[in-house]
Design goal:
Elements: H1 3-8, H2 12-21, H3 25-37, H4 39-42, H5 54-68, H6 72-84, H7 87-98, H8 107-117, H9 123-136, H10 142-146, H11 154-167, H12 173-180, H13 185-198, H14 201-210, H15 216-226, H16 235-241, H17 247-263, H18 269-282, H19 285-298, H20 302-315, H21 320-333, H22 339-350, H23 357-366, H24 372-385, H25 388-400, H26 404-416
Length: 428
C-alpha cells in the first residue's frame, strides 16, 4: 500500500513498519514525517492487545529512529516528528540519549539542561535540544541558541533558527540576518521563516531587501516567508514580485499573498484584504489569474483554496480569455467538499457574469448527472445574475425535479428574479 494511502487511513502499524524496516531511506524519512503529521489521531487508537495508545508505539519508534537510523535525514525527520508529539516526547528522547531525568523539573531548569545539550557531541541531541528550547520559549536561552547558529551540522542550524522564530526573539535578528547571507539555502529558508515569525521592523526590512536580491532562489525564499506576516507591510512587496522575471518567484508571490490573507490578525483582516485586492487589480492579469487558478486546482490547504476562490471574483477583469478561465475554475470549485470554499466560489462566480455563463449554469442545474451540491450553488448564482431566460427555465425545472433541496433553492432563485415562489433566504 502506498504511503499516501497509509496516511489517509492513519495506518500507524504499517507506517511504523516502513520506518523501522524499509531499505529505502526516502521511504523511512517520509514515514517519519507522516507519523508526525498524524499526531492528533494517535491518542484515539489503542494498540491491539495492549493497555496503551498507539501514541506510545509511535514515540518509541521515532526515538529509536532518531538515535539509530543510518541516514542523517531520517534521523532529522524523526526528531521533527517527535516535536509534533510535544515536549514530553522530545524530553524522553533527550533523556535516553543524555541520561538526564526531566521529570518534575521546572521549565526554567529544563531550559538550562537543554541549553547545555546544545554543546553535546551528538548532533541529534543538539537538534532535539534546540527544538525543545523553542517549545519552552524561555527568553534566557536566546544567547545560547544564537551561539549555535554556526554549528557545524546544517540540521542543527536549521532547528536553531526555527527555535529563535518560535520564541520570537527580537534580539536575535542581527545574528539571523548575518547568517542569512552566509549559509546554505536550506538554512536560509528556516532563517527567513524565523524573521517573519519575529516580525519586527528590522526583521521585515531584511526580508524586503532580500526579496530584491539578484539570486532568484533568495528572492523566492524571502517572498515565501513574507506570506507568514499577516500584515499590510508585505503586500506591496509581494505584489511587485508578481512581475518577477522568474516564474517560480511569481507563483510563490501569489501563494504568499493568499497565505497572508489567512495569517492576518482579525483586527487587520479587512485592511489586508482591501490592500491585496487593490494591488492585484493593478497587476497584469496573467500574473494574477493563472496562479490563483493553480491554487484552486492543486492546493490541498483549505485556507489557501478559500482565499483563492474569494480573490478570483474580485480581481478577474473583462479579458474574455481570463474571465472564462476563472469561471471554469470557480464552477468546478463550487462542488468542493469544504462548504466555505464552495460558497466563496459561488459568490465570486456571481461577480464574473459574462455572455454564456447564464446558459451554462442553467444547463448544469438541469443535468441530473451532476453533483447536487454543485447544482445548488449554480442556482444561487443564477439568482444573482439570471435574466428572463433563467426565470422561464427554472420555473419549469422546479415543477419536475424530484429533489426537495433543488426545488427549494430553485424557488429561492426565482423569487430573486421576480418570479413566483417561496422566499427561502439568501443562503447558498
Amino acid at each position: 500500500m502506498a504511503l499516501f494511502e497509509l496516511e489517509r487511513n492513519a495506518n500507524f502499524e504499517q507506517l511504523i513498519r516502513h520506518l523501522e524496516g524499509s531499505s529505502n531511506p526516502d521511504i523511512r524519512r517520509r514515514a517519519a514525517e507522516i507519523l508526525g503529521s498524524l499526531e492528533t489521531s494517535a491518542d484515539d487508537v489503542v494498540s491491539e492487545g495492549q493497555p496503551r495508545s498507539v501514541r506510545d508505539d509511535v514515540v518509541e519508534a521515532l526515538i529509536t529512529a532518531s538515535q539509530d537510523d543510518e541516514n542523517d535525514e531520517v534521523r532529522a525527520a524523526a526528531i521533527d516528528a517527535l516535536d509534533q508529539y510535544g515536549q514530553d516526547a522530545l524530553e524522553e528522547f533527550i533523556g535516553e540519549l543524555s541520561g538526564q531525568d526531566f521529570e518534575n523539573l521546572a521549565e526554567w531548569k529544563k531550559a538550562k539542561v537543554l541549553a547545555r545539550g546544545l554543546s553535546a557531541d551528538r548532533p541529534e541531541l543538539r537538534m532535539a535540544a534546540a527544538t525543545g528550547l523553542g517549545r519552552i520559549g524561555e527568553d534566557n536561552v536566546v544567547t545560547a541558541l544564537v551561539n549555535r547558529l554556526d554549528d557545524p551540522d546544517e540540521r542543527v542550524r536549521k532547528r536553531v533558527a526555527r527555535a529563535l522564530g518560535r520564541i520570537e526573539a527580537a534580539e536575535s535578528v542581527p545574528a539571523l540576518s548575518k547568517q542569512f547571507h552566509a549559509d546554505t539555502y536550506g538554512v536560509r529558508i528556516e532563517i527567513a521563516y524565523a524573521l517573519a515569525d519575529i516580525g519586527t521592523d528590522n526583521a521585515l526590512r531584511e526580508l524586503i531587501d532580500v526579496a530584491d536580491a539578484e539570486d532568484e532562489v533568495l528572492r523566492r525564499i524571502a517572498v515565501d516567508a513574507l506570506g507568514r506576516l499577516g500584515s499590510t507591510e508585505a503586500v506591496e512587496v509581494l505584489a511587485n514580485a508578481l512581475s518577477d522575471e522568474t516564474d517560480m518567484v511569481r507563483r510563490t508571490a501569489m501563494f504568499s499573498l493568499v497565505q497572508l490573507l489567512s495569517e492576518a490578525p482579525a483586527n487587520a483582516s479587512h485592511q489586508v484584504r482591501e490592500k491585496i485586492v487593490g494591488e492585484l487589480e493593478a497587476a497584469d492579469t496573467d500574473e494574477v489569474i493563472d496562479p490563483l487558478i493553480e491554487i484552486l486546482d492543486r492546493s490541498t490547504e483549505t485556507a489557501q483554496r478559500r482565499n483563492a476562490a474569494w480573490l478570483l471574483g474580485r480581481v478577474a477583469n473583462d479579458n474574455d480569455g481570463q474571465t472564462e478561465a476563472a469561471q471554469n475554475a470557480l464552477i468546478e470549485t463550487m462542488g468542493d467538499d469544504d462548504e466555505m470554499t464552495s460558497k466563496f466560489a459561488a459568490t465570486s462566480l456571481s461577480l464574473l457574469d459574462s455572455d454564456g455563463l447564464e446558459l451554462r449554469l442553467i444547463e448544469l442545474v438541469e443535468d441530473g448527472l451532476k453533483d447536487e451540491e454543485l447544482r445548488v450553488k449554480a442556482l444561487f448564482v443564477l439568482g444573482k445574475i439570471g435574466t428572463d431566460t433563467s426565470r422561464r427555465r427554472l420555473s419549469s425545472f422546479v415543477e419536475r425535479t424530484d429533489s426537495d433541496r433543488l426545488r427549494k433553492r430553485g424557488f429561492s432563485a426565482l423569487s430573486k428574479l421576480g418570479g413566483v415562489g417561496t422566499v427561502a433566504g439568501d443562503a447558498v
